[in-house]
Write a structure and sequence with these properties.
Number of helices: 18
CATH topology of the largest domain: Rossmann fold
Helix content: 40-55%
CATH superfamily of the largest domain: P-loop containing nucleotide triphosphate hydrolases
Distance between the termini: 91 Å
Largest sheet: 7 strands, mixed
Bound molecules: adenosine-5'-triphosphate, magnesium ion
Number of domains: 4
Length: about 475
Amino acid sequence: FCQSLLHAVFPAELRVASLKLLSRVFNLCSSYCYYDITEIDGVNTNELYNAAQLYLSTSASITGSRLSLTRATNSTAVTFGLSNSDNLVDVFLGVPVLWEHVITPRQNQTFSWRPLPEDKRGFTLRIKKKDKSLVLDSYLDHIMDKANEIRRKNQDRFLYTNSRGGSLDSRGHPWDSVPFKHPSTFETLAMDPLKKEEIMADLNDFANGQSFYQKTGRAWKRGYLLYGPPGTGKSSMIAAMANHLGYDIYDLELTEVHNNSDLRKLLMKTSSKSIIVIEDIDCSINLTNRKKNAGDAPGRNHHYDGGPLPEMRGGGDDGGGNSITLSGLLNFTDGLWSCCGSERIFVFTTNHVEKLDPALLRSGRMDMHIFMSYCSFPSLKILLKNYLGYGEGDLNEMVLKELGEVVDDAQMTPADISEVLIKNRRDKDKAVNELLEALKARVKKNRANGGLMREEEEQEKRALESPKQGGDELQESCNKSDDNKPN
Ligand SMILES: Nc1ncnc2c1ncn2[C@@H]1O[C@H](COP(=O)(O)OP(=O)(O)OP(=O)(O)O)[C@@H](O)[C@H]1O
Ligand SMILES: [Mg+2]
């Protein structure tokens, strides 16, 4: 209205000056202040614009009347956005904030190294002047945090590997990545439900523990050691952890790392909210002789050179190409460099926990030791439910009892059992009968070969007695479940 009045009354030269004056008077009288958040700031993309768009997508999905829908590459979810000139009120700490999405055609195209979009997009944020400090102090941070959270939830996770042997790609990254689509979850994982709950609670405490770690002066990281025979679900557990927390996985192939400094560089290039995995740690490096390593000349330390295990070579110090030392690995997991990011989980897996150096197992490095055991009765019930759809009470009581009687003595891995079930999944009765037969046959074999069982038990016992165990509660639960094992 004011503008049309100006056009009618004032000559052109006076108009601009009057408009400026008017807007100044208006700003002085108004109790609101305005912030423009444009999509492109000069030639750089404005992160805050993208964050605001994501953040508002959660509110817009509920209140907006005309919405734009987008689905990013690799994303599993659709996000909603505000259309041109749409408004939305968000409330932060009891303070209402008005957002308007403004899209205007870009007029004279200025010179730029990259083509700019045809229209200018931006949000205008309106807030009462008295609440200005709130916006600047915490609201914008809140938006960034929430947007990151939404992004993580929507986006598929990535699995990174250092298979290029430390060489960098064009963007200077030592990691290769692929979208991570492993379907394993804690629901599909067959293990003692009590143990499972404790692990999930521990993971949740970790993920929500930022202030706790800050308060106690600890680096925000946690180590898990998964040990047990092959096929008991160690790798599946890692995938379930990543899916549960929404973290990326960095699968570190130690045999591809040449020295401690490369190891550190790899660590520096990992993002927060990730799981760093070293599988079969006992096969990757000589982990039994830290003192000897420390005394060795640099570059002549214990290392893995792609040949037989160092132990097999009698110490493994033959000066080959790789020179990762145990102390290098210890620093990787618990030294100053391990804190160069935050919210990170280290997971080591092994089939032979007794081969590992106690220094590697101590709390702070491997906080929780998780024994992945042969299939127990509760685990078997989970497999029957997942593979054949047998819920509680669906299976014949007698058959269930028979299965329960042999499953512990059979010492079959969940991998072995799931194979029998997969093979016969079209005929449930046949699957159960065949499983029962397989379990009984295995019990017979184990009894005939009594030494095998004792050896496994010995390994388990040694592992449980290994010094300075972390995750005491979980360990107790392992002990409890082991008490049920047959002698
Ligand atoms: N606890 C389990 N729950 C559900 N499925 C399992 C479990 N353990 C094993 N499996 C099945 O067996 C297959 C092999 O398991 P997985 O690779 O996790 O074993 P692992 O312990 O990592 O073995 P390895 O020590 O040889 O690496 C998986 O694809 C999975 O389907
Ligand atoms: Mg594995």
